Amino acid sequence: MSKLIVFATVSVGVFAFVVVYLASPIYATSSGTNTGSIQMTQDLSNKINSKVAAKSIQNNQKIVKMLQGHINSLSSQGKDVRKLNDDLFFFKNMAKSFAFEYSSFINVLKDTKKIGFEKTRMIETKLVLNQVKQKAQNIFEYLNTVIREDLEKAV
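RESULT FIELD:
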């Protein structure tokens, strides 16, 4: 159980840190194009698309498998796992929502590259990125509060 919590905490925490770190220079400074913003956005897109969020999505899938294993183990011991099953269902929905927000972010970045780097587009990109970060934070909090408590109660 502690391996699951540590794994979840580290994976979500690392993702949130990297996204915040990489996204900080994304604003355009004027209504026209900005060469610095273009380069920063391309760098951001490459870094996030290649490693960070994909790894976080994989980690969420591993967490689901580990939770399912704990639920099966506790169920075979005759413990009540209804609350954990509900938690797992909710976590799966949160993970799907995160994956959807992440793909939306990548699509907005790609559109920004195609259309141009005007200020409104950069602000939209930042808003979508904030949604992705919020989803990651929600997953982190849910794992550390609700699922941790319910696992401890079930054991």
